[in-house]
Write a structure and sequence with these properties.
121 residues; eight-stranded antiparallel sheet
């Protein structure tokens, strides 16, 4: 059984940050479950263009307000508490955060731990 608290992983190598975002990674590849689970925050005013070429991702919004745009179709979606979005086709997207966002995210295959966003996804 794996039991971890947010306080326990904050400030460790499971706490990964970038410009405008922070991902606290509860479950990683080495945990052996085949997926990752993160508590991710994105600051208001942040706009990110992202594509995960190596992972599928589902995000459940706990707090905040944002808009996500599918860059292939131009379709826009409002993200607010109680909304889930899933990037099931390695979707290249833009996330624009209006109010500090808090998401619970699941990645498949599992993250190794140190991944960050770059030009290649």
């Amino acid at each position: 059984m794996i039991v971890r608290s947010l306080d326990e992983i904050s400030g460790t190598d499971r706490d990964v940050q970038g410009e405008g975002w922070r991902s606290r990674r509860f479950l990683l590849r080495d945990d052996g479950l085949g997926f990752s689970l993160t508590d991710t925050t994105v600051a208001a005013g942040t706009e990110m263009e992202i594509e995960y070429r190596h992972h599928l991702e589902a995000c459940y919004c706990l707090d905040g307000d944002a808009e996500i745009t599918d860059l292939a179709t131009g379709q826009r979606h409002v993200i607010n508490p109680g909304t889930v979005y899933a990037l099931d086709q390695h979707d290249r997207h833009r996330l624009h955060v209006a109010r500090d966002l808090r998401l619970i995210c699941v990645f498949s295959p599992a993250l190794t731990g140190g991944e960050t966003h770059d030009a290649s996804g």
